[in-house]
Amino acid sequence: MNASDQPNLYSRRSFLKVSAVFGASAALVSLVGCGSQAPSSSSSAQGELDYSDWDAVLEAARGQEVSWYGYGGQSDRNEWIQNTLIPRLKENYDITLNLVGMDINDILTQLSGEMQAGVGDSDGTIDFVWINGENFASVKENGYVWGPFVDYLPNYRDYVDGTSTDITVDFGNPTEGYEAPYGKAQIVLWVDGAKIRDTPRNPDEFLEFCKAHPGQVTYPEPGDFTGTAFISCLIAGVVGKDVFEQLSTMTNPTEDSVRAIIQPGLDYLKELKPYLWKQGTTYPADSNTVAQMYADGELVFNMGYGGPQALVDKGQLPATTKAFVFESGTVGNTNFMAIPANAPHKAAALVAINEVISPEMQLDQYKVLRNLTVLDMDKLSSDMRQQFEDVPLGSAEVSASEKLKVRVTEASGQAIPVIEQLWRTEVAGN
Which of 78, 410, 14, 21 is nearest to 246 (CA)? Predict the structure, then answer.
């Protein structure tokens, strides 16, 4: 198996690598005041429109061409949009959706350039965008996003739990209705079931597992987002979900404030070290390296966002691969969509976003992409809930309900570097 084949639903952590660059650019803004623009009832491009009147939104959107900007490197997602979402929007609403795959840095440069040049209201080029975390916080602070808009969306009102931390907070940044969710990802663990009969269910059992397989277990060095996510799973299992999730809304963390929450988890990771690969004296640089070591038989355990089924299907991992989650919890995150303040086709963007979060499209994304739904299952009809449960799973997959039952909200973008630094100093000893 090549390292590049490591299965991984695209994690929003990758978007954050460019946020510092964008933040420096945004600091130069003088043409746009801080604070996002509230939706207006009129627009020079679309005329008078009451966005709270959904029938009026549908009528205004009819015949419009709308662009969805976002990371373009996830081929299965692109195929789903091209083969399923685009035809559905055209058939049901006479909306033409154009998918624009672009690096998030280039998207933010384009958006900020337009806004700083005074291209406002409905004269921009981006209708809605896949954006997350600190990048979202930057554009929101500088008035580059339109909203709040989620309460205009019938499917959001009817099926999304608008009080859930997964929805109200994006990597520590309050969404405040300026972002709509469209999919969730979560850490999954796996072993070869032909070699490992019993899988660990919590940190205590994982410690015993490592003792039983000395030198055959490790994790990517935190700083790699999978490595950070994995130690977060272990820390959450030690300190408890509710305690760990205090980190999800922490906006001004210090080493002392984070240590007060995770110290028992750090002590656990130190106890784990002697039984890891090279006795924990060093760690693989990234998740691809761990995946290669696992495929080569050097390790007996691996982890990642998504799961190993695709590699099993390709014959790169054995059919006996067994996926699981800790009963004590595994961390997950949510992907979001936002509408720029100068989006030219806001009505069509609303309709497209509403369709993405419809029960039917959420179900199809789960079937095809294995995206965890952003919908509250308790708000769905019994028939729709059953359809989610009836989605056939491969032998190396964990059901959505099993994952969501143990889901832990990740730490905020501000807290994660502090966790990583504490790991380096107190666990790795650097």
Answer: 410
Q: Is the link from the previous residue into 148 a cis peptide, with omega within 30 of 0?
A: yes
Q: How far apart are CA 199 and CA 94, in angstroms?
A: 50
Which residues make Cβ contacts (< 8 Å) with residue 358, sequence separation at least 6? 155
Distances (CA, A) of 210 to 159, 213, 274, 353: 42, 5, 9, 45
Amino acid sitting at position 146? W
| CB < 8 Å & 24+ apart, contacts of 355-360 | 355/85, 355/88, 355/89, 355/92, 355/93, 355/155, 356/85, 356/180, 356/182, 357/153, 357/155, 357/156, 357/159, 357/160, 357/180, 357/181, 357/182, 358/155, 359/155, 359/159, 359/384
DSSP readout, 351-381? HHHHHHTSHHHHHHHHHHH-PBP-S-GGGS-
224 vs 290: CA distance, rounded Å = 11
Q: Could you tell me the two tokens for 430?
A: 């650097």
pLDDT 10s digits, 152-189: 999 999 999 999 989 999 988 999 999 999 999 999 99
Is pLDDT larger for residue 40 or for residue 150? 150
Give CA–CA dist 370/193, Å, rounded: 22
Q: Tell whether the torsion through CA atoms of 133, 136, 140 and 141 is positive or negative.
A: positive
Give me the chain's average pLDDT, please: 89
| CATH numbers and ranges of domains, the chain | 12-184+333-393 (3.40.190.10), 185-332+408-427 (3.40.190.10)
What's the rounded Cα separation, in Å, for the pair 339 and 207? 46
* Percent of the chain residues topping a pLDDT of 90: 77
Tell me which DSSP letter residue 315 carries.
Answer: T
pLDDT (average), residues 345-357: 98
Residue 243's Cβ-side half-sphere holds a number of Cα atoms within 13 Å equal to 19
Q: CA–CA distance from 176 to each of 35, 148, 284 (Å)?
A: 12, 7, 38
Strand locations in 255-392 (E) = 302-305, 321-324, 330-338
Share in percent of the chain as helix, strand, coil (round to 5): 45, 15, 40
Mapping DSSP to helix (H, G, I), strand (E, B) and coil, where does residue 219 land?
A: coil
pLDDT > 70: percent of the chain: 89
pTM as predicted: 0.84
